[in-house]
Amino acid sequence: MERKSVHIWKELRHHLPFSVLSVSIGLMFVGIFTVITEMLGVFDISPYSEELFHIFHPVHMLFSAIATTAMFWQHERRVFKAVVIGFVGSVGICGISDIIIPYISGFLLGAHMQLHICIVEHPHLILPFVFLGILMGFLAPGTLEKQEGVIFSHSLHVLVSAIASILYLISYGVTGWIHRIGIVLIYMVLAVVIPCCTSDIVFPLLFTKEEK
Length: 212
Known about the structure:
The chain is mainly alpha-helical. About 80% of the residues lie in helices and about 0% in strands. It has helices at about 1-40, 45-75, 80-110, 120, 125-140, 145-170, 180-205. The termini are close together. The mean pLDDT is about 85.
């Protein structure tokens, strides 16, 4: 168990700087989208951001399922267990990243947030991405053996997650977020880094067999 804890900490230490960088880039992308829509005279951007959320959130589930399944499959080759780990790690843990933490963050920012859980309300949008991601996760370890490949895939996952989380904020309650971008950055780092690092690294490794 001690060796596993050391391995988990090593993986987290390598990924955290890239995760924070991805969150910052996500803030810039959504900020550009917000400014452009306001320049076009569209001040209620929630309908448009909601549509974008329903693109980035399923794609986030795809990346999450790939990363979680691949991390587990790289250490233990049990198909059914890998499918369960990939499903729970993507839908469960990263659903917290895109929805639950942004929902709570919106209330802390003083907004009246609307709770919208896509897997419940739009399962047909989520499940194809999740199961395709799990399938790709079985193939991914062979192409992500190098540390650079793992970091790139995780950073891309975090970037998509950051954009999805911010889009949820502005779609379901928060307005004028750019003027509070500092505190939004803190909330989004917490919303993205903790769940995504957990689903990509900690969660699958916790359920692998101890190395001899």
